[in-house]
Design brief:
Number of helices: 3
Radius of gyration: 16 Å
Shape: elongated
Helix content: 55-70%
Strand content: under 5%
Distance between the termini: 39 Å
Structural class: mainly alpha
Number of strands: 0
Length: about 80
């Protein structure tokens, strides 16, 4: 009997992992956003980073094997 990868389950697990990984990163960006607003500074880069973090789980759907899933990270 051989081991078979269940990509559907692997994708769910990867999305859950990425969500846990990005939670503190999004919280940090939220603080930076509020500080930038208070200082009337540009929030453009902060908004771009928050968007990238929110969309990181979309990349999971394009993966075709577990090696690709393992390579996904919230770090740039």
């Amino acid at each position: 009997m051989s081991i078979v990868e269940n990509m559907t389950k692997a994708k769910v697990i990867t999305k859950d992992r990425l969500r846990l990984e990005r939670a503190p990163l999004l919280a940090t960006q939220d603080v930076l956003f509020m500080k930038a607003q208070e200082d009337e500074s540009s929030t453009t880069n902060i908004v771009k980073e928050k968007k990238r973090l929110r969309e990181i789980t979309d990349a999971v759907d394009d993966c075709t094997n577990t090696t690709q899933l393992k390579a996904l990270s919230c770090e740039e």
